[in-house]
């Protein structure tokens, strides 16, 4: 099947408006007869469920947690971008569009990104109307901060809990519709397959995670907003339950999976400490507004610090290497995430890491304390303030901005970051790749949509900070509710989709057989045993930098683990009860397939772009020496993979990317 | 460190539960409490026993899913953290740790340490929202200035993660801190004023219907709340409720 992105004709700034003016609509009376299933209730799924219900559709929403409010969007800290230009610093829809395409290293679809930038301002209006308590200045207007990879302040925030507040906003909109009966909410339910009738997505098979019951749910369309697949690495900043099962199931039933190798390794996470570690914790990128990143210049100091003979605060300014400021003077500590992560890895690989594992760099707020302290002293008319007073005043400002993050750091590491610099190291955070969708956010299965992090569409090969929240809400509040109407307008006479068809029988049988297999297999190893093994291969060979040899090995090794998994997995308990091991087994089984496709995609892409760094493709000389080298001639396409039984046999379909409104350039932050 | 764990085991909502003793060894002080539970569960699975079911998800203190009652305190002995952020350095080698589910009539046990908090969902559905459609046709976000003070206070109330520690800690199993936080968030913002009276009455009515107890100003909820939600929110809810009922 040839890929048709269905991007509307016309100038980029008119595409979305023209499109909305010409699509088919469903009249309000008919919407009452149309059912939509939404899987996942984070920012994308939650906002979509609420909006579809408000429009009049009957929505069934599914979450594996006990409430939509617990979806992992809640953990997003820093903020949400919007081209409001409230700061008057030259922001515009075009500039947000440009920054996002450039930040994505020219591997995203222009028309989708422009639309995202276009609706971004509306998101803020919407959220304020819902009672989201964004940060404000003393005049009562909304405050902004800066994020990496841009030169304007366009990020709206609610302390370090922006994702929480936005999700609670979407959740409140859902609650209003649940109360009206327009959303039927299925908490503690997991989608285990999609049901396709006459070529269209018409329902799902779900498991009730409390009783173990397998349920059939039908609808006229299925929307998957189940998040990313970062947990393929075992250790990531994702929630423990975050999984790719819904996305992978639709892939196996015909939805192409795009650019799986584009993964974001976030530069500012708390370093790992031991083998028992179950997850990694992010420290918001917003900290890079005020924190400066460094390692010691001299190896003797590195050793002294590791052995506890010296403290980082004892090093003078000229004994420190502020390597981001040195290498990227224009953007300094605010370079995009992929660049910052690789730079940290480069220093640590060279032996300059500052903790026992050699995998940590400093994030230092001392100069921010001083800068803010002096400013405050002036404001409060304190003459000749002592250095201690300046620090105290400065710390109060930093605490107001990032207090919860500092507290979180202290609880985990047991060190006071007001007194000693934080230690950070990159960790897997977000996946730009995902299910391929067209301009309508429809997958290659008619009637099956994919939104938010689960799809591939807007971030190219690297996502800029504060853009995930923007995309999730844009898809759910403002894009999908329009585009899905165009499809559903053909279904006004279809009537309820029966669940007693042979298609439902077959899908349920497949699900039940797999569960039975797990319960009856007399293996000896736990799910985590396999998950950790997979994660180690992914991190070592498909991590921050990749090469052909490692990727080829990774594919073979993952395949071998998969074979071992299906032979030796052991699940305690029964299928007819709450059984967390059984839940994990299904998810890890899918990761074991996805991981191999991921490595295959990375192997195919013989260029470096965004989060995907191929060692064979780096600049060899000139001012950009050592930086990633993109190859637009051969790789300016979306890689959409078609499932063919084994991940290794997946067939590549290319969607060529056209750049009409932005010139393709080397992405320089120097 | 080596520890003895006394854990509540209960097969399902109908079964009769009991405390069961387990031993774990070589626990690092840098582990989180849930990572210690992972070690126990891995141990149980490897010996063919059923692992202890417990709720958890984000493991960074924000989703509100984790919910254990540890040594008689919701989320354990540390302050300002959820169980997932409680670290083993709070305990000593040789300790015996008692781990129970959150207990309240309105939070029935589903299995082991997992409880059903759907009552919270129904309270939110009764009025925990502003009735505005997600149409995108709202007015510009800066058209209504909101004082920084009010916005910050609304934010403090809005940081509630809905974990239920307040209910579990209260001798009356009262949910007033949880409900008060939501009522306050909207009461403090101009957007929430329009339906403020209906909201507080509906949410309180649902809260009573769910079987939560009343507030007797003990303040345990505030102490145990991992997000430091203030008792002031209960006072504000009471004022809102009073003025709403007086208005009729």
Automatic annotation (TrEMBL), chain A:
Reaction(s) this enzyme catalyzes, per UniProt: a quinone + succinate = fumarate + a quinol
Major enzyme class: oxidoreductase
Record localization: Cell membrane
One Pfam short name: FAD_binding_2
Annotated catalytic residues: 337
Keywords: Cell membrane, Electron transport, FAD, Flavoprotein, Membrane, Oxidoreductase, Transport
EC number(s) from the headed UniProt entry: 1.3.5.1
InterPro entries given in the database record: FAD-dep_OxRdtase_2_FAD-bd (IPR003953), FAD/NAD-bd_sf (IPR036188), Fum_R/Succ_DH_flav-like_C_sf (IPR037099), Fum_Rdtase/Succ_DH_flav-like_C (IPR015939), SdhA/FrdA/AprA (IPR030664), Succ_DH/Fum_Rdt_flav_su (IPR011280), Succ_DH/fumarate_Rdtase_cat_sf (IPR027477)
Cofactor entry: FAD
Any one GO MF annotation of this record: flavin adenine dinucleotide binding
Keyword Membrane: yes
A GO cellular-component term linked to this record: plasma membrane
SUPFAM superfamilies (alphabetical): FAD/NAD(P)-binding domain, Succinate dehydrogenase/fumarate reductase flavoprotein C-terminal domain, Succinate dehydrogenase/fumarate reductase flavoprotein, catalytic domain
Bilayer topology annotation: Peripheral membrane protein
GO biological process, one term: anaerobic respiration
Superkingdom to which the source organism belongs: Bacteria
Domain FAD-dependent oxidoreductase 2 FAD-binding: 35-469
The Fumarate reductase/succinate dehydrogenase flavoprotein-like C-terminal domain, residue ranges: 531-669
Similarity remark: Belongs to the FAD-dependent oxidoreductase 2 family. FRD/SDH subfamily.
Protein name: succinate dehydrogenase
Source organism: Winogradskyella thalassocola
TrEMBL record, chain B:
Keyword Ligase: no
InterPro entries named among the record's database cross-references: 2Fe-2S_ferredoxin-like_sf, 2Fe2S_fd_BS, 4Fe4S_Fe-S-bd, Beta-grasp_dom_sf, Helical_ferredxn, SDH/FRD_Iron-Sulfur, Succ_DH/fum_Rdtase_Fe-S, Succ_DH/fum_Rdtase_N
Molecular function terms from GO: 2 iron, 2 sulfur cluster binding; 4 iron, 4 sulfur cluster binding; electron transfer activity; metal ion binding; oxidoreductase activity
Entry's Gene Ontology BP terms: respiratory electron transport chain; tricarboxylic acid cycle
Pfam families for this protein: Fer2_3, Fer4_8
Residues covered by the 4Fe-4S ferredoxin-type domain: 151-181
Matching Gene3D superfamilies: 3.10.20.30, Alpha-helical ferredoxin
Key words, A-Z: 2Fe-2S, 4Fe-4S, Iron, Iron-sulfur, Metal-binding, Oxidoreductase
Cofactors that this protein relies on: [3Fe-4S] cluster; [4Fe-4S] cluster; [2Fe-2S] cluster
Domain of life: Bacteria
Family designation: Belongs to the succinate dehydrogenase/fumarate reductase iron-sulfur protein family.
PANTHER family xref list: SUCCINATE DEHYDROGENASE, SUCCINATE DEHYDROGENASE IRON-SULFUR PROTEIN
Name of the molecule in the record: Succinate dehydrogenase / fumarate reductase iron-sulfur subunit
């Amino acid at each position: 099947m040839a890929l048709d992105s269905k991007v509307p004709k016309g100038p980029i700034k008119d595409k979305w408006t023209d499109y909305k003016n010409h699509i088919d609509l469903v009249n309000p009376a008919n919407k009452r007869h149309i059912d939509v299933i939404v899987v996942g209730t984070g920012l994308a799924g939650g906002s979509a469920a609420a909006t579809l219900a408000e429009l009049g559709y009957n929505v069934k929403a599914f979450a594996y947690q006990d409430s939509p409010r617990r979806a992992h969007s809640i953990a997003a800290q820093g903020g949400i971008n919007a081209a409001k230009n409230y700061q008057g610093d030259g922001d515009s829809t075009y500039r947000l569009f440009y920054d996002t395409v450039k930040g994505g290293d020219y591997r995203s679809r222009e028309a989708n990104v422009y639309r995202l930038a276009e609706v971004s301002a509306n998101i803020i209006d919407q959220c304020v109307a819902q009672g989201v308590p964004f940060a404000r200045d003393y005049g009562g207007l909304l405050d902004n901060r800066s994020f990496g990879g841009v030169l304007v302040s366009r990020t709206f925030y609610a302390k370090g809990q922006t994702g929480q507040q936005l999700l609670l906003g979407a959740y409140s909109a859902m609650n209003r519709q649940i109360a009206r009966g327009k959303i039927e909410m299925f908490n503690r339910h997991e989608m285990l397959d999609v049901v396709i009738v006459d070529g269209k997505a018409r329902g799902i098979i779900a498991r009730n995670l409390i009783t173990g019951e397998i349920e059939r749910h039908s609808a006229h369309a299925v929307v998957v907003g189940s998040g990313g697949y970062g947990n393929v690495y075992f250790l990531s900043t994702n929630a423990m339950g975050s999984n790719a099962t819904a996305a992978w199931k639709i892939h196996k039933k015909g939805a192409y999976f795009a650019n799986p190798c584009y993964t974001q390794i976030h530069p500012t996470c708390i370093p790992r400490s031991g083998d028992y570690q179950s997850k990694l914790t992010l420290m918001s990128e917003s900290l890079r507004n005020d924190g400066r990143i460094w390692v010691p210049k001299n190896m003797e100091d590195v050793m002294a610090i590791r052995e506890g003979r010296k403290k980082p605060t004892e090093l003078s300014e000229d004994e420190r290497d502020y390597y981001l400021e040195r290498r990227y003077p224009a953007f300094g500590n605010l370079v995009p995430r992929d660049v910052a992560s690789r730079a940290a890895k480069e220093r640590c690989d060279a032996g300059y890491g500052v903790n026992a594992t050699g995998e940590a760099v400093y994030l230092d707020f001392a100069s921010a304390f001083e800068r803010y302290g002096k400013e405050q002293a002036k404001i409060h008319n304190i003459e000749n303030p002592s250095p201690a007073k300046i620090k105290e005043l400065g710390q109060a400002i930093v605490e107001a901005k990032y207090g919860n993050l500092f507290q979180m750091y202290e609880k985990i590491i047991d060190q006071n970051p007001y007194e000693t610099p934080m230690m950070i190291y990159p960790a897997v955070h977000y996946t730009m790749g995902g299910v391929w969708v067209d301009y309508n956010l429809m997958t290659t299965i008619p009637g099956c949509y994919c939104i938010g992090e689960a799809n591939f569409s807007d971030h190219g090969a690297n996502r800029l900070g504060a853009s995930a929240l923007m995309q999730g809400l844009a898809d759910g509040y403002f894009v999908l509710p329009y585009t899905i109407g165009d499809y559903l307008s053909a279904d006004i006479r279809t009537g309820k989709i029966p669940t007693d068809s042979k298609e439902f029988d077959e899908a349920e049988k497949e699900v039940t057989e797999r569960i039975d297999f797990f319960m009856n297999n007399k293996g000896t190893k736990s799910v985590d045993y396999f998950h950790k093994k997979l994660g180690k291969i992914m991190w070592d060979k498909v991590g921050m930098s990749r090469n052909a040899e490692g990727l080829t090995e990774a594919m073979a090794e993952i395949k071998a683990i998969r074979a071992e998994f299906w032979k030796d997995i052991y699940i305690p308990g029964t299928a007819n009860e709450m059984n967390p091991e059984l839940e994990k087994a299904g998810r890890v089984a899918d990761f074991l397939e996805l991981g191999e496709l991921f490595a295959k995609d990375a192997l195919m892409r013989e260029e470096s772009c965004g989060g995907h760094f191929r060692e064979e493709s780096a600049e060899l000389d000139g001012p950009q020496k050592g930086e990633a080298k993109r190859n637009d001639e051969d790789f300016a396409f979306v890689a959409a993979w078609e499932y063919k039984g084994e991940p290794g046999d997946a067939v590549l379909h290319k969607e060529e990317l056209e750049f009409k409104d932005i010139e393709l350039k080397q992405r320089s932050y120097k | 460190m080596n520890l003895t764990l006394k854990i509540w085991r209960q097969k399902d909502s109908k079964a009769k539960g009991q405390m069961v003793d387990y031993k774990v060894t070589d626990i690092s002080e840098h582990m989180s409490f849930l990572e210690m539970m992972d070690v126990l569960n891995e141990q149980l699975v490897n010996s063919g026993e059923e692992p202890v079911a417990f709720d958890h998800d984000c493991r960074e203190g924000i989703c509100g899913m984790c919910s254990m009652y540890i040594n008689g305190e919701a989320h354990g002995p540390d302050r300002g953290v959820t169980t997932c952020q409680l670290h083993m350095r709070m305990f000593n080698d040789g300790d015996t740790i008692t781990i129970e589910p959150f207990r309240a009539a309105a939070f029935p046990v589903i299995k082991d340490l997992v409880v059903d908090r759907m009552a919270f969902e129904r309270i939110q559905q009764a009025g925990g929202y502003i009735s505005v459609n997600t149409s995108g046709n709202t007015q510009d976000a800066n058209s209504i200035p909101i004082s920084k003070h009010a916005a910050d206070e609304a934010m403090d109330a809005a940081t509630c993660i809905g974990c239920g520690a307040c209910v579990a800690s209260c001798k009356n199993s009262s949910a007033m801190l949880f409900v008060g936080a939501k009522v306050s968030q909207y009461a403090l913002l101009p957007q929430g004023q329009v339906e403020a009276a209906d909201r507080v009455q509906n949410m309180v009515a649902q809260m009573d219907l769910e079987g939560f107890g009343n507030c007797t100003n003990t303040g345990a909820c505030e102490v145990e709340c991992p997000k430091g939600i203030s008792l002031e929110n209960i006072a504000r809810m009471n004022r809102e409720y009073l003025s709403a009922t007086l208005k009729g």
